[in-house]
# Entry
Amino acid sequence: MTISDDFQRLVKQAGEFMQPPVRARAVKQYRTGGDNFLDAEVLNADGDVDENWPLIQKIEVPCFMSLGEGTGVFYEIAKGTIIRVGFYDGDRHRPYLDAVIGAGKAPDGTGLSFAIIGKNSSIKVKDGVVQIGAGSVSVSGGVVNVGAGMDEFGNGGNVNVIAEAAAKIDGMDILLGGDDGDQVIKGNTWITVFMPQFLAHTHADDTPVKPSSVPTMETMLNGTLSQKVKAK
# Structure
């Protein structure tokens, strides 16, 4: 027994009115009017692009923590990430991101990331990098650990501090390398104190000038040791 063409057409039309979720691949993500959207191409059962589907545009990306109008914590989804797209009331014209499939990994290995969007600043975490836009990080007490310890594979890593302008470190005490360090010599101040004494110093053969005493370490270091910075 075969199903008539008319019945198949009716089933297809019914599916267009009550569209179930589909498996898709992310093409691009963008932000419009304070909201986040995604474009994606539908995949068939073999994982190839389904030619019967147009590109799904303006897929609503949910905010999983709202911080007010136009702000919150949002997913950042890399191009190529496999996702599941749902449709409000089964309407193809009202798509939304239903789930991220495959541990949030794109084919190139790019991981799922997220962004915290504020009114005048943003924080983005992507591929192990924390990016802070138009803002600052304030810590009141406590400890900030950057790259501390090992990851789950036993790998450690370097921590790089890079700034396009000045990189400033300030505090009551700045301890480089840990506690119990030595006071750091302030280079320019040391030169200012040391050079006049060095140039004024004379030796026995500098006749007829009487030899002067050797500048003491105490006088050379007077005022040149940092009262805040110590290093091991």
User: Anything to note?
Assistant: The chain has a mean pLDDT of 75. The longest helix spans residues 187-200. The radius of gyration is 32 Å. The chain has two domains: 15-133, 182-231.
